[in-house]
Structures are given as structure tokens and as C-alpha cells.
Amino acid sequence: MTQPRVQPPEPGRLLASRYRYSLLAATVAGALAPAYVIRWHVGPLPTTLLEVAILAAVAAFAVETLQQRLRVEWRGPLTAPAILFIVAGAISVLVSGDHRAALGLFRAYFLEPAAFFLVVGAVASTPRRAGLILLGFGAGAAVAAILNAAVVLDAIRHHVLDLAITPPVVIYQTANAVSLYLIPLVAMAAAILVHSRGRAERWLSGLFLAVALPACLLSFSRGGYLALAAVALGVALSHRWAKFLVPAVAVAALAISQVPLIRHRIAYELHAVPGNTLDFRLRIWGQTLRMMSHHPVLGIGLSYYQQAMGPYWQDLPKVIYPHNIVLNFWAVTGLLGLVSFFWLAIRAFVLGWQGWHKQPAEWRPYDLGVMLVLVAMVVHGLVDVPFFKNDLSFEFWALLGILWAGHRWSGAGTALYGRAGR
């Protein structure tokens, strides 16, 4: 007698009850992203609180994978460009004139965040789990936003805010770093607020935006303002009332630009006078191109930009990156890193676009959110460094992990990636 065939449980539902400790550890790691500034040494090796949290999440994931006899799935639509990007990072360690420092940055910007990407791709097996990991990121970012906004408001209250220099900060070293970290999470929260069907998700996203948006404005980052405008425009275009919302975004942007402090900050940069940010960037880009004419293929490696630029500084302030997304990757990781990063970003955007149109409704806000994140990174990256920092690289890989999780565990991705354990 033929036994009836028993259908295996759906992988998404199967893992919804598993990886509980990994989910908790991943959520805590997301909340501790700004805590990379807390540093110490273990013997001769430097480490950070964020790194410890990432390694704890990876360790929990490894233990639960073995205990539950699951298989780590690493193949997916982002695998090829991600591997090539990591290879470019490894080459940049060999190219660098400071191998020890370059290896530390390779570990912090490539290896550990990529491992966390695999954790998120497996653990975020349902939209609710993905939202919980984002909640961790939002909690940590909200603390950073409140603290940095408070110190700027205190400077305004005491009439000591000088918009000719960077505004004061608490956690980060520059105000630009505040907006660089917050705006990708603002993009995710805006997509969830507008398109999620869950009441709790919308309320939490709205609460985060109420904290993060003022902090972004108070960073007085002109690149941040451009990125916020791009995110707002993308959210407006995604809505069925786009023909009304797009003009509303334009009016709101114009109104915000007329706030006295913001207007003064923008006006200062529209005049390319010696010493302001626009003048600095134009000159640093030109000198970086001169330097790269001698290193056009491999670049100059991680942690070596300042040294390689030695003959080209002239009277320029010494920075560690050229503050342009193309020049950043080209100088540090060479042509291979530049091409592989944009291949990864474009592939992720296409995956998000496909998910936005084909995924179940619960996953679509995350697909849209990641697309907006990538747009914000490129726009902000025209004048800044949106990747080469501990929290930014970690955030980038984690959000790609949520995108992959949605593709992997939704109905569209289950057939291809749903062979979880037997």
C-alpha cells in the first residue's frame, strides 16, 4: 500500500519558530550600531562594542544552525556581486601600504557585516521578524538622533551655533555622520509607514520618523538634505496619489529650505568661496584624480588614502576619503571594487523592484525601503562617504540581508531558496 506523501512544512513557517536566540542577538546588534565608537583592545587586537555584538549574533546563528541541523544557504541573486566585492576588499588589503590597519578595516567593513548579512537572510524568515531587526536598528538610531539633536538645540539656545563649521555632536565625530546613518533608516521607516498593513509597524515607523527627521535637519548636512529630498520623492511616486504628493514634496522642500538656519547653511555653500565645503570638495576631487592617474587599476588600498595623497594635499584639509561615492570606491578598492559595488547595488535595486511588484503585500514595504536606501546612498554619496565606516557598512549589509530574506522566504523565493533542513 502506497503511503501518502507528506508535504514538508513551508520553510518560512518552519524557521518562524527557530533561530530565536539568533533573532534576539541580531536585533541587539542592530541597536548597537552607533556603539562602534566604544572601543578597547583584547591583547594587541582592537575591537568595538558593535563588533562584539556582530560576532555574538554570528556565533548564536552557528550554534542554532548546528543544533537544528539546518543548512546555511549562501547562494542567491546577490551572491556573485557580493563575493566579487569582498574579493576586491581583500585585494585592497594587499595593495595598501599599511597592511595591519587595512586588515582591520576589511574585517569591519566587509567580512563581519557580510556574515551578518547571511544571518539576517536566514533569521528574518517572516515580515514580523524582519521588522523586529529593523526595530533594533531604529531604537539605537533614535538614541543617537535624540542626543545629537539635543546638543545642537542647546547650541542654538545659547547662540553659539556657527554654521560656517560643522555643528556640535555627541556620539559621532561629525554632524554629517549623523545624517549618513539615519537617512537609510528614515527611508525604510517612510516606506513602512506609507505601505505597511500592520498598525504597530506604522505607529513605530511614524514615531521613529518624528525623532530622526528633526535630527537629520539639525545636522545641517547639505548632502543629507538632497538625500532626504530623493527619499521623499521616491515615497511620493510609490503612492497611488503620486500626482498630488509629488507637488506637496516640492512645496515642503521649498518651505524647509526657507527656515532661517537652514537657508543660511545652504546659501553659504552655494557660493564657492575659499574654505567652504563646495570649494573643498571640488579641489579634493581634482587632486584625487591626479593621484589616481598613477593607480588607475588597483587603487591605493584600505586605510592608505591620506598617505597616498601626501604629495597632492597642498593647502587642503587632510581627510581619509575623497567624499565622492565613485572616487571613494575607486581609490580604496580599485576598479574591481568600484564595479562590484555598483553591480551589487544595481542588482539589489532590481531585486527590490521585482519584489515591489510581485512579492506578497507584507514584504513590499521592505523592498521599496531598500530601493530608497540605495537611492539615498548614491545621492548622498555624490558629496560624502556613505559606506566606509563601521556603522554604515554594517547597516548597508544588514538592509541587503532583509531584502534577500524577503525574496528568499516569500512565495516567489521559496521554490528556489527554501531547502532549509530535513
Describe this structure in words.
- A hairpin with a 2-residue loop joins strand 1 and strand 2.
- The chain is 70% helix and 2% strand.
- The N terminus and C terminus are likely disordered.
- With 422 residues, the protein is mostly helical.
- It has one domain.
- It is globular.
- It has a two-stranded antiparallel ribbon.
- It has 17 helices and 2 strands.
Low-confidence spans: pLDDT under 50, at least 5 residues? Answer: 1-10, 412-422
Number of strands: 2
How much helical structure, as a percent, in the residues?
55-70%
Mean pLDDT: 90
What's the total helix number?
17
The total domain count is 1
Question: Layout of helices and strands, plus pairs?
Answer:
Layout: H1 11-16, H2 20-31, E1 39-42, E2 45-48, H3 49-67, H4 79-95, H5 99-123, H6 127-157, H7 175-195, H8 199-218, H9 222-238, H10 242-257, H11 260-270, H12 277-292, H13 305-308, H14 325-358, H15 364-381, H16 390-409, H17 411-417
